[in-house]
Amino acid sequence: MRLYGILKTAASALRRNIMRTLLTTLGIVIGVAAVITMMEIGNGASIAIKRTMTSIGANTLVIIPGAQNIGGINMGIGSMMTLTPQDAEAVLKECTAIANVAPIVRARAQLVYGNRNWVPTSIYGTTPSFLKVRDWTGMDQGEAFTEHDVLNLSKVCIVGQTIVRELFGGQSPVGKEIRIRNVSFKVIGVLRPKGANLMGQDQDDTLLAPWTTIKYRVVATSLSSGNQSATDTSSTTEVNSLSQIYPNITSSLYPVPSSIEQADLPQPIRFTNVDQILTAAKGADEIPSAIGQITAVLRERHHLLAADPDDFRVRDMTEITKAMSSTTELITRLLLYVAMISLVVGGVGIMNIMLVSVTERTHEIGLRMAVGAEPNDILQQFLIEAVVLCLLGGIMGIILGRGTSYLVSKVLHWPTAPSLGAIVAAVVVSASVGVIFGFYPAWKGSRLDPIDALRYE
Amino acid sequence: MDLIELHDICKTYHLGEVDLPVLKGVSLGINRGDLAALMGASGSGKSTLMHILGCLDHPTSGEYLLDGREISGLTHREQARLRNQIIGFVFQNFSLLPRTSALENVLMPLTYSRENLSEHQKNERALELLRKVGLADRSDHQPSQLSGGEQQRVAIARALINQPELLLADEPTGNLDSLTSKEILQMFQQLNRDDGITIILVTHDPSVAQYAGRIIRIKDGLIESPGDAP
After folding, report:
1. Fold of B2-225
2. Chain B residues touching residue A372 (CB < 8 angstroms)
3. How many beta carbons lie within 10 A of that of residue A155, not counting itself?
4. Full-model pTM
5. Which of A101, A451, B57, B142 is deepest in the core (most CB within 10 A)?
6. Mind telling me how many Å the CA of B92 is from chain A's nearest CA?
């Protein structure tokens, strides 16, 4: 018996009782529709979660200079002065997995406005692309500084919400002048509120300014003195006497190197360095390749031999990316399992109806056997019928599921994303449901004795 | 050579502990081209004999030669193929598939046939048979739209679709009025005469049996009179 004949027989058998066929497939229709809708909602949710995670900084990679060792004293990570703004430009140009790069010069200093003062958590000297890296574009008020400001060492800055509250009492600071270590900065913009980061650090307590301005006008530390955060409290700068709590005492955390020591261990000063380079990978999946590319580019730029260790570190937000992938996976899987249950229930429905159908058509089975159908023919016939039934349900389910997910996105504004995998899976699963749950009734039908079956009315 | 040869066929049903012998040694020969009636009261074993003749059942013992071939030892699959190729069945209750057109009902046995025919050839053959039984214009009617006699004629066309040598009719007129019965029985006579098909009518009705050229009487599982082979 050829496939065409079998399909024709199945189709005509199903046509004979259209209402029952439709009711039987309803279980599968709902099951498949549920699978597809759930998968699409899950997909949409995971895309939305990824977007949120990106704004937390999941794609961010931080390049930090390595540890400096002076006379056996390790100064800790970040103490080497090997990263340059040119490194940042090279990383952006040569690493294909990197979307944005921002060099950072950090400072810790007091801000003064009128009769108020405040020490923000972070003062970052950077470039405008910092906002893109941190997904912080779109200002609350005013506007961001430009590349032009960076080149010009413009004394402009943008401030976060906490500074607005503490220093300006909540009034708009745009256009006002504040002083940082006696350097006066014009506030040209206010950042969007962002809240605390994962470590509980208030991200709104941030001041951003062109890195050149911070580097040369504010920090202005002698380049030989290691990292600024260590030296801020101890070093004396001529520019700012206000930052000294006890102006007459010069105490140093480390022994002051004698002139001989300084001559023995000269600090090479050849370039302007930055404290960090902040980069954003193009996507969470590209982070490993981005790390590889950055390492290759920087090793070449720093003229490191194969045996030399890296003089920098690339840090990724492993914690966040892991949380991201596990969250989205969990959601999608959970929804899928729930939907699978409804498919199984639909399959049981099919089995019930097929059993009823076999009993009801016992006489037909007897007749078919009498005119020459082998048990296998009967098995095939009912099995194909069940599979056709399920596939029919599958197709209707796909249409219904796509429709539902469209409605969900239009009416409820939930994010959904079409998933080809879900459609393929739904078709495969519904066909297998047909085979699995159709087999027992079909087998039962094929085992009937033709004489008994013929006698059955 | 006889189309059918039965030698000492016995059939015993095992109902739990009790053995119920239904056929107790039937020996019979039926010639090619016979139109025979198998007569007997209910419980005489005529249905069981027909099932064995129709390869639907195995005898408990004895030898059954159909067209010179030993049948009793065949597997279910081989029996099924034999039923498809050599035997046509006509039932008392017509046994047509509901909500299926007369044409498709006639075509149904062809789906199990090993013959390689195109769809067109199949349809041609089915339409030809429907014409033969006088239903050429009703090929797309469903059984519920046909009268009893018409339904039985569709069933006869169906039985003939695989060009069988033997037609087994089990009480073919049991559900029909006398006028239609006459038409159906005359059709059997005509098929027997014109196409040389061997026909066995199973009945308990003497008025039906008189259409046959030979009447085989069966009683209590034994042949009472084998009738005269013409």
Report:
1. Rossmann fold (3.40.50)
2. 80-81, 83-85, 109, 112-113, 162
3. 17
4. 0.68
5. A101
6. 11
